[in-house]
Amino acid sequence: MAATATTYYAQLTGWERIKEFFNAKFINILALSLFLLLAVFLLFPIFAVLVKSFQSPEGFTLAHYKNFFTHAYFFQSLYNTLLLGLINTIICVSVGFCFAYMTTRGPMALRKPLKIIAMIPLIAPPYLFALSLIILFGRVGLITQTFGVNWEIYGFDGVVIAQTLAFIPLAFLMLENNIKSLNPNLEESAYDMGATEGTIIRTITLPLLSPGLLKAALLVFVMTIAEFGNAAVLGGRVPFLAPDTYTMIVGEADFSMGSVLSVMLIMPCIVIFIAHNYLLKGKKFTTIEGKPIASEPRKMSPFVKVPFIAITFLFGFTIFICFAVVIMAAFVNILGVRNEFVMRHIMDFRSNMAIWNSIKVSFIAALIGGIIGTLLAYVIVRGKFVGRNLIEMISLSGFALPGTVIGVGYLIAFASPPMKLTGGIMILALNCVFRFLAVGVEAGITKLHQINIEIEEASWDMGATFFTTFRRIVLPIMFPAFIAGFIYTFMTAMVSLSAVVFLVSPGYELAAVTIFDAAAYGKIGLASATTLKMVTVVVLCMIILNLLTKFTNLDIERKGGAA
Amino acid sequence: MKAKLSLAVLVIFSIMVVGGSVYAADEITAYMGTSPDNNITIVNYIKKKTGIHIKQTFQSFGEIEAKVRAEAPNFNADMCLGVGSPLTFMAKKNKWSRPYKSSNWLGVGSVFVDPAGYWYNIGNFSFVLVGNKDALAKKGYKLPTSWQELLDPKWKGEIVMASPLSSGTANMIRFSFLALYGDKGGWEFLQKLDKNIHHYTRSGNAPTDLVGRGEFMLGITSDENIKSRLDQGYPLVWGVPQEGIGYDGTFAFIFSTTKGKKYRLCKKVIDALGDQELSDIMAGIGYMTPRPAANKLYGAITPKYIDLDLGMAAEERSKNNDIWKSKFRITYK
C-alpha cells in the first residue's frame, strides 16, 4: 500500500505535487489563515488593551488599577454600569419573551403588527431613544410643556429607559427564533391533559427556552453596558464605564486609564460568556427531531393574555411614539422654541456624505464578514484538526466583547507601522467584521450540519478537486448563511456607534457618529433629520437585499432540498 | 442564473464603493476644532480661494489635542486648522509642527503670528454668559452681570458649561478664572460654581444650543455660535460680566510629517488664511481677527478682557486637569 503511494507520488511532476498537497491540505491551510485573521483582528486588540492597562513608561505597573480601586468615582461608575446592565437585561428579556410569545402563540391578528413594532428599533441607532426622550421629557419637551410634568430625564432613570427600549428587539429576535424551533407537541399534550397556560409556560416553555433566554440575556447585557450613546447624551453627571472610557481616550488621551476601564468593562462579559458556555454544556434540548411544526393558534387564557397584551402594547406604543417624534422633530425649526415646519434640517446635505460613508463601510464589512463567516463555519464543521473548538469559540466570542473595548483596542493596536490602519476606512470596516462575525458563523454551522458530508465525499470520489467541490457543492449550500451574515453585519454596522466612534477620522465621518455629535450638541433637528435619512437608507438597502435573496434563494433551496 | 445576477450586482456595487473613494486631486486632511458650522465656513472659503479641498471632521479642541498626543509622531492629518493654544504651544515645543514663514501674513502682530512661523492665529474667541430669555422672564430673573452671581443657589441645576477635559473653551474658562481670582480663589470659585452646574458638556459650543432651546436657563459658552443662533431666532440673551472674559486663539499649523505636495498645499492654505477676506468672515461670526474687521457680535466696543498668560496656561493644562479630576470626579449619589 505504502509502496503504491510512493510510486504514485514519484510519478508526479513538481507542480502536480504542489497541487496534490493543496488539494489534500487546503482545509488546514484555510483554517490556519482564518485563525491568523482572528488572532490579529480580534485577540490582538484585546490583548493590546490588557497590556496597556499594566504599562507605564517605566515598565510593568499596577498603579492604574490602584487608581481605579481607590477612587470612589470609578467605583460608582462600575456600580452604575453593572446595575444598568442587570436591570436592562431583566426587563428586555422579560418583555422580549412576551413579544415572542405573542407573535408565535398569540392571536393571529396581532402576530404581524407586534413583530413589526418589536423589530423597528433595529433599523435605527440605539441612542435614537435618548433623542426621543429629550424631545418628550426634556425641560422644553412636548410632554413636559403640555402636561407640566416635572420629571428630570437626565440621569440614571433616563438611561435605563432609553437602553431598555433600544435592546428589546435584540431579546425579542433571539427568543422568537428559539420559540419557533420548539416543537409545540409537548405544550399541546400538556394542554390536552388539562394544564393551564400559566403552568405550561412555567414548566414547559420556559425550561425548554432556557438556552435561548440565557443567550439573549448575555447579548443584551453586553450591548447595554457597551453602547454608550444613550448614557453619554442622557447621563448628565451620572458616571458609566463606557462613556467614561470615551472621555478618557477621546477627551484626554489617557490610554492607561482608558484601558483599565475597558478591562473592567470586559470582565463581566467574559465571566458571563464562560458561565453561559458552561451552563449550556450537556443542556441541549432537542424536543423531537425533525422540522418544527407550526403551532395551531390556541385560545390564550385571559390570565396570560391580559398581562401579555398589556405589556406588549405598552412597550410597542412607546417605541412607536419614540420613532414618531423623531420623524416629526426632523421637520421642526427649533423644537420647543420655534415650532414651525421647515425642510432645512432634511436639506442639510452635510450629513449625506456621512450616510454614504456609512453605507460604504457597512457594505465592505458585510462582504468581508459574510465571506470570512462562511469559511469559518466550513472549517469548523468539516475540518479535522486540533483546535477546532478554539476557533469556534473565538469566532463566536465577538458578540460578547463590548464594542467600546474593541474600539479602544483597535486604536492602540493599529496606530503605528507596520500595522497602521488608523486614519483610513478599512479600520472602520474591519472592527465591524470581527465583532459581528458570530451570526454568519452560526448560520453557516447550522446549514452545514443539515447537509451530509457524503455529497462532498461523493464529489471527491468522482475525481473533483477540492476547489471544484467547494465551488459546486459547498458554496451553493452555504449561500443563505453568507446572506444571513451579510445582512446582520450590514445592519449592525450601519447603526452601531460604540467602537467606530474611536476610529473615525477626517473624511470618513459616519452617520452614527454624526447623529451622536448632533444629539450631544443639542441640535435636535439635525440629529433627527440625519436619523430619518439613515433609517430610510437602511430600509431601502434591506428591501433590495431581500429581493436579491428571494431571487437567488429559490434555486438554492431547491438544490438544498434535492440533496 | 439568478445567483449570477446577484453576484453581478454585488460586483458592480463593490466597484462603485471602491471607485467612490478615489482621491480628489488637491486635497489635504486637517483637524478642525471650531464649531461644525464654522468649520464648514472655513473649508468653503479655502476651496473658493485656492481650489484645495480640506477633509475634516468635527472634534472639540481638547479632543484634537488628545488625538494629536496619542498619534505623535505618526499624525493622520496634514495640518491643524482651528485648535487651541495648549496644543499649538505643545506642538511647537515638541517639534510636531513644521515652520513656514508666510509672506501673506506680513504686518500682522505677534498675537496672531509666531515670529518663527510655527503657528498662525486666525482669530481670538472668548467665553460669555448666555441665558434663555423666555425661561428667565418666566422666573422673573435677570441675566447676571457678575460671575459671582452664578454662585447663588437659585441657579442650582440650571447652568451648563463644557468639561475642561474635552473642551478648549472650558479650558479657557478655567484658566481665566484662575487668572482672575488667583490659584486658590479660582479653584474655590470653580468648586462653588460646580454645585450649580447641571452637567459638563463635551463641546464648548453645546451650552449655546442647550440654553437656546431652553433645556437650561444659563450657560457659560464660547462666543463663536452666538451670532448665528441669534440670527436663527433662538431666544438668547448674552453678556460680558463686569469682571471681564478670557480669550484664546484659533490656531493653524502644519504637521512636521507633512511632506512634498501636501506640504505645498498646506502652505497655500496658510497663505489664504492671512487674507483680509477671512478676517472679515471671522469677524462676521464674532471673532477678534488678525486684520481689522467689523465685529458683528461685539460691535465697536472691545469687551473687558481678563489678563492672561496663554503660554503658562498651556504649560499648566495637564496639572489643572488632574486637580479638576480630584475635585470634581468624586462620589455621586
What would your notes on this structure say?
The complex is a heterodimer of chains A (563) and B (333). Chain A has 563 residues and is mainly alpha-helical. Chain A has a domain at 85-239 and 298-329: MetI-like (MetI-like fold, Orthogonal Bundle), CATH 1.10.3720. Chain A contains 23 helices and four strands. Chain A has helices at 2-11, 14-53, 63-70, 72-105, 108-119, 128-137, 142-147, 156-180, 185-192, 197-226, 229-234, 241-252, 255-280, 302-329, 350-382, 388-397, 403-413, 426-435, 437-450, 454-461, 466-495, 511-521, 524-562, and strands at 55-56, 59-60, 332-334, 338-341. The model of chain A is unreliable at 286-290 and 554-563 (pLDDT under 50). Chain B has two domains: 27-124 and 249-285, 3-Layer(aba) Sandwich (D-Maltodextrin-Binding Protein, domain 2); 126-246 and 304-328, D-Maltodextrin-Binding Protein, domain 2 (3-Layer(aba) Sandwich), CATH 3.40.190.10. Chain B is globular and about 65 Å long. Helix content of chain B is 43%, strand content 15%. With 333 residues, chain B is α/β, with parallel strands linked by helices. In chain B, helix 6 (168-194) links the parallel strand 7 and strand 8 (197-201). Chain B has twelve helices and twelve strands. At the A-B interface, helix 4, helix 12, helix 15, helix 22 and helix 23 of A face helix 1, strand 1, helix 3, strand 8 and helix 7 of B.
CATH-level-2 architecture of the largest domain in chain B: 3-Layer(aba) Sandwich
CATH superfamily name of the domain at 85-239 and 298-329 in chain A? MetI-like
> Count of helical segments of chain A?
23
* CATH hierarchy class name of the largest domain in chain B: Alpha Beta
Q: Which term fits the overall shape of chain A?
A: globular
Main β-sheet, spatial strand arrangement of chain A: 1-2
> Which class best fits the helix and strand makeup of chain B?
alpha/beta
Q: Unreliable runs of chain B, pLDDT <50, ≥5 residues?
A: none
Mean pLDDT of chain B: 89
Find the CATH topology of the domain at 85-239 and 298-329 in chain A.
MetI-like fold
CATH architecture descriptor name of the domain at 85-239 and 298-329 in chain A:
Orthogonal Bundle
Classify the fold: give the CATH topology of the largest domain in chain B: D-Maltodextrin-Binding Protein, domain 2
Count of strand segments of chain A: 4
> What radius of gyration of chain A results from the CA coordinates?
25 Å
Q: Which bin fits the share of residues in helices of chain B?
A: 40-55%
Low-confidence stretches of chain A: 286-290, 554-563
- How can the largest sheet of chain B be summarized? 6 strands, mixed
Gap between N and C termini of chain A: 34 Å
